[in-house]
Specification:
Helix content: 55-70%
Number of helices: 14
Distance between the termini: 40 Å
Number of strands: 0
Length: about 300
């Protein structure tokens, strides 16, 4: 296989209709490690919005069961992409998200912002640290993918292009990023979990590296100390170097799924997407196939 095998495959696909296949190739063959890191940082950013961070703190899930919430989020999102949004399995995963979101008072603006981070943060990560820059087809497909997911989740006024998503994310953060004890607690718990994925001897370097990847606004919102300039330069320079080295690797022949990673620990025997996530007292643990949450599955 030539190094550009998957690029040539993507070039044959239509981002308007085959956006899911393009997203699968990009996520699991071309940039699997990058997408996993970028989506983790995307979710981490959302905690700095007090209406989001406080809710996560108040449910107790991200403080008391951080590993499970991390795993559930990764597995639900992956189930949607791997199975396809129009499939039975994909709809079950979207339904599970809608049920969870529908159990709490979450504004459309917050949901739309979270959706925007899934589009913008991975794009910027690949632009800065990927082994190649995403093609126009990949960018368009990613936008269409999250537009469709937003529609299935019942999110209104979703942007129509990357520039719209970027403007939405940047302006929302400028307006809402505010220090708060509860958002800091959620960030601390999540960062502690991230550090636990590596050998104990690397705990401090990983923690510093993670803060080095955060911009000033995010550091200020969480009240985190800003790493030294050499630490920031080393962390970001190291990622750029990794990207250059990956260019010389052969293309992946097998997909790299989150469910196969050692850091996903909650379900060693497998999982059912219908049982992932939270189940408030008023919600049955197993919903029938017609049940939906706040969004539409039409």
């Amino acid at each position: 296989m030539r190094r550009d095998h998957w690029q040539r495959k993507i070039a044959e696909l239509d981002p308007e209709t085959e956006y899911e296949e393009i997203a699968r190739i990009a996520s699991y063959y071309e940039f699997p490690w990058d997408y996993q890191q970028a989506l983790s940082f995307a979710l981490f950013r959302t905690y700095a919005v007090p209406s989001i961070g406080r809710l996560l703190f108040d449910t107790g899930e991200f403080i008391e069961r951080t590993q499970k919430r991390h795993d559930d989020t990764a597995l639900v999102l992956e189930s949607v992409l791997v199975d396809g949004m129009e499939s039975h399995g994909g709809r079950a995963a979207v339904r599970r998200m809608n049920q969870m979101h529908g159990s709490y008072d979450i504004s459309n603006d917050d949901l739309r912002y979270v959706l925007a981070t899934f589009v913008v943060v991975p794009h910027r990560w690949l632009r800065d640290y990927g082994w190649r820059t995403p093609s126009e087809i990949e960018v368009a497909a990613n936008v269409r993918y999250y537009q469709r997911l937003g529609a299935l989740m019942g999110i209104k006024d979703v942007p129509s292009d990357l520039a719209g998503f970027e403007q939405l994310m940047d302006s929302y953060e400028a307006e809402h990023f505010t220090p708060d004890p509860k958002t800091r607690a959620v960030a601390d718990a999540t960062l502690e979990l991230l550090v636990s994925f590596y050998p104990r001897v690397l705990a401090k370097p990983v923690e510093v590296f993670s803060r080095a990847m955060m911009d000033d606004a995010l550091l200020a919102a969480f009240g985190f100390d800003k790493p030294s300039r050499p630490a920031v330069a080393l962390a970001r320079g190291g990622l750029r170097l990794r990207g250059r080295l990956v260019r010389f690797l052969p293309p992946r022949r097998r997909p790299r799924f989150a469910k196969d990673l050692k850091r996903i620990k909650t379900y060693p025997g497998g999982f059912m997407v219908e049982r992932l996530g939270t189940f408030p007292a008023t919600m049955p643990e197993m919903a029938d196939d017609s049940a939906v949450g706040t969004g539409s599955t039409a």
